[in-house]
Specification:
Length: 69
């Protein structure tokens, strides 16, 4: 029981240190990949398309190195 507790404490102490190492490098140093996203529905803002529209407005694609139209 003591070994398990010591392992869990060590894991909890090392977790914040390793989380910082796992972050991706910013995409600003490389050019953006251009992507054209084609919808199969004629209206420009259909309800099912909202996640893609919101992701573009919040800049999630640019963070990933993508230029989505």
């Amino acid at each position: 029981m003591t070994k398990i507790l010591a392992f869990l404490v060590a894991l909890l102490l090392l977790l914040p240190l390793t989380a910082g190492l796992c972050q991706a490098a910013p995409a600003a140093d490389k050019p953006l990949t251009k992507i054209l996203f084609c919808h199969d529905f004629p209206q420009p803002a259909w309800v099912a398309q909202m996640p893609w529209i919101i992701a573009k407005e919040k800049g999630f694609y640019q963070e990933a190195g993508l230029d989505v139209d």
